[in-house]
Design brief:
The protein is mainly β. The protein contains two helices and 16 strands.
């Protein structure tokens, strides 16, 4: 999704806007998985449905690292009435863990994990919001759209990561927001240093 100005609201794509319920999401996720499994090209990026944590594929995109140096992956899932939320997963976590409303919701299943060839992606640092018109405008990029929160349905959620206690925790960032968020030990952490996953040039 094209992001010309992070601090303006970038709406979710029409594809995401078509998802209005858990049923909508799970049906689309199952269709995506069938198409992906039928394809011979596993380098194509895709949100891949996981119905058991043992199914996390070997080509899941590493978007973080825990304090022990183990890989963490970006995940998304429909949660109650909150929307299609973005968080993290790895084998051993018993599902996706998603930050929401100052807490972290653990063990959410089913969920989707981002898979594909990591060379398709890059990390983009979002500069602080300009304080005056003379400031240099940030460069545009194509962000990896991941979801939305129903409380803020007018803006897309993107994959992000934040640094916490010698780890990089995968989380979410919303267009128009000066912060990135991630769950860590059942709390939602907020950082004003934003790194967003984008499509490589």
């Amino acid at each position: 999704m094209q992001v010309n100005d992070w601090y303006s609201f970038v709406p979710p794509s029409s594809a995401l806007q078509s998802i209005r319920s858990h049923t909508d999401w799970i049906n689309q996720a199952r269709d995506r998985r069938k198409l992906y499994e039928a394809s011979n090209n596993k380098t194509i990026p895709c949100w891949f449905l996981i119905e058991s944590e043992k199914d996390i594929p070997s080509n899941a995109i590493r978007t973080g690292t825990d304090v022990g140096g183990h890989a963490l992956y970006s995940a998304r899932s429909w949660y109650k009435d909150a929307g299609l939320l973005v968080g993290k997963c790895r084998p051993g976590l018993s599902g996706a863990h998603i930050a929401l409303n100052l807490g972290e919701i653990p063990k959410i299943t089913p969920f989707e994990v981002l898979v594909g060839d990591p060379s398709h992606f890059k990390w983009v640092a979002v500069p602080e919001k300009a304080k005056d018109a003379k400031a240099v405008a940030p460069s545009a990029f194509i962000g990896v759209e991941a979801g939305f929160e129903n409380a803020h349905r007018h803006r897309a959620s993107f994959v992000s990561q934040i640094s916490l206690e010698n780890s990089w925790q995968p989380g979410k960032a919303h267009s128009g927001d000066p912060f990135a968020f991630a769950g860590y030990y059942l709390k939602e952490w907020r950082k004003d240093t934003i790194r967003v996953l984008a499509w490589a040039d």
